[in-house]
Amino acid sequence: MYFFKYNMGGRTDLITYIGYASTFVGFALVAFIQPFVKKTGKRAGIIGIEALAILVTLPMLVTGLKGAYAISAVMFTYIAITFTWTINNMLSRSAVLDSANYAQMTLGINGTALVNSTFTFVNKCCQAFSMFFSGIILSATGYNKDAVEQTPGCLKAILLLCTVGPIIAYVFSIAAMYFYPLTRKGEVEMQEKLDKMSFVNLEDDLIL
C-alpha cells in the first residue's frame, strides 16, 4: 500500500488488478502444482521458484533506483511475484508435511501436529517482526503519516523494503533448502514406505 500511495504517486488503483491476478492465479495453479512436483521434486522446485522470484523483482528495483517508476515494470514484478509466491507457498507447505513424515520414518514419532503448529507460529512471528522493523526503518527515514509526499530517503526505504528485503529472504531460503534432505527420489521412496506401513497397520486392525 505505501509503495503505491507514495512511490507511485497515489496509484492505489493498481492494487485492484494485482488482487484480480492473485485470485486467478490461485485457482489456475492448483492443477499445475502436482505435475510440477512430480517432475522437479519439492526441493528443486522451491529453489528454482525462489531464484525466479529474485529475477522478476529486479525490474522494479532497477527502475525505482533510477527514480523512474515505470508502471509496466512495477506491475510485471508484482504479478510475476503473485505466480512465484503462490507456487512457493504450496510447495513449502507440502514440504513441511514431508518433514513430519520424514521424522516419523526416521524416529518413529508422528510429529505432524507439532511441525504444523511450529510452522504457523514461526510464520506469524516473521510477519510481526517484519512489520516491527519496517516501522522502525520508515520512522528513521522521516516517514510522516500526515504528509502527502514523503522524503526521498523514505521513498527509497519503501522501495528497498519491497524489493531488497524479499530478495535477502529468498537468498537465505535457497541456502536453507540446499540442506533439505529429501530429493524427488527420496520423496517417492518415503511415500512408498508410508503406504506399506499404512497397509500393514490396516491388516493388523482387521486381524484385531
From TrEMBL:
Q: What SUPFAM superfamilies does the record tag this protein with? A: MFS general substrate transporter
Protein name (Swiss-Prot/TrEMBL): Melibiose carrier protein
Report one GO cellular component: plasma membrane
Keyword list (alphabetical) reads: Membrane, Transmembrane, Transmembrane helix
Q: Which Pfam families match?
A: MFS_2 (PF13347)
Organism name? Roseburia inulinivorans DSM 16841
Determine the domain of life of the protein's source.
Bacteria
Q: What is the lineage of its organism?
A: Bacteria, Bacillati, Bacillota, Clostridia, Lachnospirales
Q: Does the keyword section mention Transmembrane?
A: yes
Q: Where are the transmembrane segments?
A: 14-32, 44-62, 68-87, 158-180
InterPro entries on file: MFS_2, MFS_trans_sf
Gene Ontology biological process terms, A to Z:
carbohydrate transport
Under Gene Ontology molecular function, one entry of this record is: symporter activity
